[in-house]
Amino acid sequence: MQDTLAIIKPDAVARDLAGEILAAVQAAGLRIVGLKMLRLSKAQAQGFYAVHAERPFFDSLTDYMASGPVVCVALRGEDAVARYRALMGATNPEQAEPGTLRHKYGQSLEANAVHGSDGPDTAAVELAFFFNKLEIVE
Ligand code: CMP
């Protein structure tokens, strides 16, 4: 079993797509073991995306991620990191395969509806950013 972090980003939450996206994740066989809605401050968004700090899109990305509430989801399943990444599709919605979340719900490279951890080590760090031990159910 493996855990991963999913985030439903501000553009998707604002369009009331959180329920639909959570249903699609569950239909794909991933279990929700942690769930919360919150609004990141700019500083918190910068902390979460610190790995991208030197990228030209960092300031815009962190403004966007702090622009409204997000839904943070801890997912569990066999090979959950790769399976959730496959469900999300390519980062750029224009390149995402039909049937993927970003193809269906993404609006742009930045407002691409969902985030997912890119590997098991990153997942552990990203899950710990949003959830303490008590907030992940067994
Ligand atoms: P995400 O998977 O959340 O990780 C970093 C985010 O930066 C990415 O999704 C995109 O939404 C956003 N982003 C904006 N511009 C770019 C870019 N040029 N290349 C990659 N990611 C970008």
Automatic annotation (TrEMBL):
It catalyses: a ribonucleoside 5'-diphosphate + ATP = a ribonucleoside 5'-triphosphate + ADP; a 2'-deoxyribonucleoside 5'-diphosphate + ATP = a 2'-deoxyribonucleoside 5'-triphosphate + ADP. The active site is at H115 (pros-phosphohistidine intermediate). GO terms for biological process: CTP biosynthetic process; GTP biosynthetic process; UTP biosynthetic process. ATP binds at K9, F57, R85, T91, R102, N112. SUPFAM superfamilies: Nucleoside diphosphate kinase, NDK. PROSITE patterns: NDPK (PS00469), NDPK_LIKE (PS51374). Keywords: ATP-binding, Cytoplasm, Kinase, Magnesium, Metal-binding, Nucleotide metabolism, Nucleotide-binding, Phosphoprotein, Transferase. Gene3D superfamilies: Nucleoside diphosphate kinase-like domain. The keyword Ribosomal protein does not apply. It is found in: Cytoplasm. InterPro entries: NDK-like_dom, NDK-like_dom_sf, Nucleoside_diP_kinase, Nucleoside_diP_kinase_AS. GO terms for molecular function: ATP binding; metal ion binding; nucleoside diphosphate kinase activity. It comes from the Bacteria. Belongs to the NDK family. Major role in the synthesis of nucleoside triphosphates other than ATP. The ATP gamma phosphate is transferred to the NDP beta phosphate via a ping-pong mechanism, using a phosphorylated active-site intermediate. Homotetramer. This is Nucleoside diphosphate kinase. The lineage of its organism: Bacteria, Pseudomonadati, Thermodesulfobacteriota, Desulfovibrionia, Desulfovibrionales.
